[in-house]
Amino acid sequence: QVQLVESGGGLVQAGGSLRLSCAASGRTFGYYVVGWFRQAPGKEREFVAALSWIGSGTSYADSVKGRFTVSKDNAKNTVYLQMNGLKPEDTALYYCAADETWGRVVSNPNYWGQGTQVTVSS
User: Fold this and answer.
1) What is the pLDDT at residue 27?
2) What's the CA gap between 76 and 79, in Å, rounded?
3) Using CA atoms, how far apart are residues 121 and 55, in angstroms rounded to an integer?
4) Is the separation of the CB atoms in 11 and 121 below 8 Å?
5) What are the residues facing 99 on neighbouring strands?
6) Which end of the chain is more exposed for a tag (fewer CB within 10 A), N or C?
7) Coil, helix or strand for 36?
8) How far apart are CA 108 and CA 117, in angstroms?
């Protein structure tokens, strides 16, 4: 079982940048797919981006393509979400999640972090 810990959230002005981190403990990411999700107040949770630990394949929601980049650091067993050109509508609680397949990660991953708040002011 893998434990996930997010960090890096905060308050930023529109147009600014933040980098979120998702560190794994208990085991390495190994062959997992790691995803980022967000949930704004009063809205459903939505998929943001994902990365395959093996092969480094990536996927992004249309709303963040060209602005967000997901990457990994093998040595630190950490996945990052670089967020540039932030907009007020990006304000949400951001979670990382992991599971063994792309299908599971996108639909209902088994492993979740506790979340980190991102607030973008206009």
Assistant:
1) 82
2) 9
3) 36
4) yes
5) 33
6) N
7) strand
8) 21
pLDDT of residue 31: 86
The residue type found at 29 is F
Nearest by Cα to 64 from 45, 48, 75: 48
Quick check: helix, strand or coil at residue 88?
helix
Residue 11, token pair as written in the block: 């308050």
Q: Rounded to 5 degrees, what are φ and ψ at 59? A: -145, 145
Instruction: Please tell me what DSSP assigns to residue 84.
Output: -
Instruction: Tell me the residue type at 32.
Output: Y
Q: Which two tokens stand for residue 105?
A: 């990660």
Tokens of 55: 């092969």
> Residues with Cβ < 8 Å from 114, sequence gap 6 or more?
5, 6, 95
Q: Are strands 92-99 and 111-112 parallel, antiparallel or unpaired?
A: antiparallel
For the segment 65-120, what is each residue's pLDDT rounded down to a tens digit?
A: 999 999 999 999 999 999 999 999 999 999 999 999 999 998 899 999 999 999 99
